[in-house]
Amino acid sequence: MTWVALIIAGILEVVWSYFMKQSQGFTKLTPSIITIISMLCSFALLAYAMRSLPLSIAYPVWTGIGAVGAFIIGITLLGEHISAVKIAAGILIIAGVIMMKFSSSH
């Protein structure tokens, strides 16, 4: 259950980062509210996961999911530029997250 909470927390990190962009500096109400609610839920699930997972596992996995998710959302929904270097960096982040997962005894 801890890993499920951590994965959901990472997905919510992607949600809040996307809606923070859509809020245009917190000047649009609905995206701002979605940002704040998803942030709170993401942090709460991360805190729950950290009750049994080490910081050295939980935080890098959470940020890795968020980073790769934001990268994918930026390219697919926001039309951001894609390059071979960005793709390689995304693959390295994914590899790091997988390695963190397998290095944990939890």
TrEMBL record:
<keyword id="KW-1133">Transmembrane helix</keyword>
<dbReference type="GO" id="GO:0005886">
    <property type="term" value="C:plasma membrane"/>
</dbReference>
<feature type="transmembrane region" description="Helical">
    <location>
        <begin position="57"/>
        <end position="78"/>
    </location>
</feature>
<keyword id="KW-0472">Membrane</keyword>
<comment type="similarity">
    <text>Belongs to the drug/metabolite transporter (DMT) superfamily. Small multidrug resistance (SMR) (TC 2.A.7.1) family. Gdx/SugE subfamily.</text>
</comment>
<keyword id="KW-0812">Transmembrane</keyword>
<dbReference type="GO" id="GO:1990961">
    <property type="term" value="P:xenobiotic detoxification by transmembrane export across the plasma membrane"/>
</dbReference>
<keyword id="KW-1003">Cell membrane</keyword>
<dbReference type="InterPro" id="IPR037185">
    <property type="entry name" value="EmrE-like"/>
</dbReference>
<feature type="transmembrane region" description="Helical">
    <location>
        <begin position="84"/>
        <end position="102"/>
    </location>
</feature>
<dbReference type="InterPro" id="IPR000390">
    <property type="entry name" value="Small_drug/metabolite_transptr"/>
</dbReference>
<feature type="transmembrane region" description="Helical">
    <location>
        <begin position="33"/>
        <end position="50"/>
    </location>
</feature>
<protein>
    <recommendedName>
        <fullName>Guanidinium exporter</fullName>
    </recommendedName>
</protein>
<dbReference type="Pfam" id="PF00893">
    <property type="entry name" value="Multi_Drug_Res"/>
</dbReference>
<dbReference type="GO" id="GO:0022857">
    <property type="term" value="F:transmembrane transporter activity"/>
</dbReference>
<keyword id="KW-0813">Transport</keyword>
<dbReference type="InterPro" id="IPR045324">
    <property type="entry name" value="Small_multidrug_res"/>
</dbReference>
